[in-house]
Amino acid sequence: MWGSKKDRPENGNGEQPSRDDGASATNVSRRSYEPREEPTERTRLLDRPRPPNSDGYLDPDDPAVSPYNLWSVRFLRYFTVLFLMISCLWWTLLLISIFISPPGMHSRGSGFFDFAYTCLTIGNLLVTVIFFVAPAKVLRVTTGIVAVFLLVDMIIILAVPRIRLEEGWVGIASVVWAVFVAFWCILTDRIVAWGKKEEEERLTGRPETRRTLKEWLAILVASIITVVFVVIVILMTGTLGIRARDSTLAMEGKRILVDGDKYAVHLACVGNVSNPDGQRVPTIIIEAGEEPSEYDFEHWAYNAMQNKTISRYCYWDRPGYAWSDNAPSPHSAGMSADALSEALAREGEEGPWILVSAGTGSIVSRIFSSRHMKQVTGIMLIDPMHEDLLHRIGSPARGFMLWAWGIISPLGLERLAGAIFKGRTRQDRVYGRNAYQSGKYIKAQLQENLVADSLSKNEVVSARNIQSADTALVVISSAIKCRTDKEWERKQEDLTKLTDNLVAWDVVNKAPHQVWRTYEGRAAMEKRLKQLVKAAAKVKTPAAFDEAVDD
């Protein structure tokens, strides 16, 4: 078979010899006596009988006119399929790691960004494989835009220390692989386009400029998909830019490595450890509820210190909240209590402690109290969550919604809109009103959901059984919550029986679940906290406390 029209001999009239003239018949007869090579995968479609009036060229619609005739094209397709299989395997591991962290694959960030990059990688490869023989310039352009933005993302992740730490080797590998695959898809489409043109000219005798309706539809569908990919990667780059901006926000306190240095939690302590007489004073441990401590809960503690009600307090962020890293999955309330214990120990913080907690954070405080009975002198629970109601935050429907919200969180739809149109600040996004939009926060909520009605419930039930009966206890409840949820009200009353030393149970009128957001709520909390401080001084003097610690 001749390579192209110009390579074939012409007759005296400048015309190509036909297969059915005498010379051609003689040549065919002569070739019939010559030994023939075995047909190969490349030639077996080309050695078929031709129509009587054929000039030796194939019809443009003949199946043999295909770029698959070239080894380079088939090589690219084999490797593209191989890359797709590798990406699907990696995608499966990342999906599992959201719920259960495989050894060595824990990410101190949310884990949703690396999952998103892998989804984008699989999408690019699927488009390339499905529309392999329909190359088009528009596909190379849109995929090129995706590749450039992915390259920018890779640079941001590697250049910003905080993001590089959160993403870890898993996130870095995911974005590098996404960049490589994007450029591979561009190269593949370009080579297939070249091979398609070469084979059409060689086998049809002319360059093919037309496309079938099927090819146009394929190009249209592929173009729409890749344009969607462009929008996705632009949003992801914008979200990554916001994360880089937020990472520069200064914080009080320190980030302390815990759990074998797997992740770090944020801990800050304010005030003096002793009074003017040199006596050690109780330290208040602030445990937030469903929001980071810094949002407004910690402000109440600071005002209490300014009012001389307390002398010192510490607040921290549970894993995934504000400045704390995400912990490996699964992560229970008892594990959070252990992380707090380790952080306090590494910072040299000692009791006596008075625990002040709200909402779901009260579960962590109760477990912490049962494991540090000698150091904890008082507990104040603010509209606390009861262990029998943990099924509310552990429902499968809520878990699915959190997972789905986490999957699309790298797009940053709300975060970008808030920053551009509503003037949201770094404070709003890290620990303020928009902290719930963070991938880390969503991952933390998902972790709480997965084990709330199993591990966490078992831990808090055990903690109740061993809780010291002498510990001073205050329960402050929301009247609005109790009035609208009778089961919640009954469980609030049950929590007043955690110890035999109930100081007070206040149901604050017109107070929401976040009781400290009303003046009456703040006043009631500060009044009862003052009583707990006085009770701590009476129950355990510093000498008695030191003796208890030594024992």
Keywords:
transmembrane helix, DUF2417, membrane, alpha/beta, 551 residues, 3 domains, AB_hydrolase_fold, 54% helix, disordered N terminus, 10% strand, disordered C terminus, 17 helices, eight-stranded mixed beta sheet, Rossmann fold, Mitochondrial integral membrane protein-like protein
CATH superfamily of the largest domain: Alpha/Beta hydrolase fold, catalytic domain
For the record, the CATH class of the largest domain is Alpha Beta
- Structural Rg: 35 Å
Distance between the termini: 96 Å
Helix/sheet category:
alpha/beta
Morphology: elongated
Number of E-type strands: 8
Mean pLDDT: 87
CATH topology of the largest domain: Rossmann fold
Estimated helix fraction: 40-55%
What is the count of structural domains? Answer: 3
Strand neighbour order, sheet with most strands: 1-2-4-3-5-6-7-8
Please outline the major beta sheet.
8 strands, mixed
CATH arch. level architecture of the largest domain: 3-Layer(aba) Sandwich
Strand content: 5-15%
Write down the secondary-structure element order: HHHHHHEEEHEHEHEHHHHEHHEHH
Total count of helical runs of at least 4 residues: 17
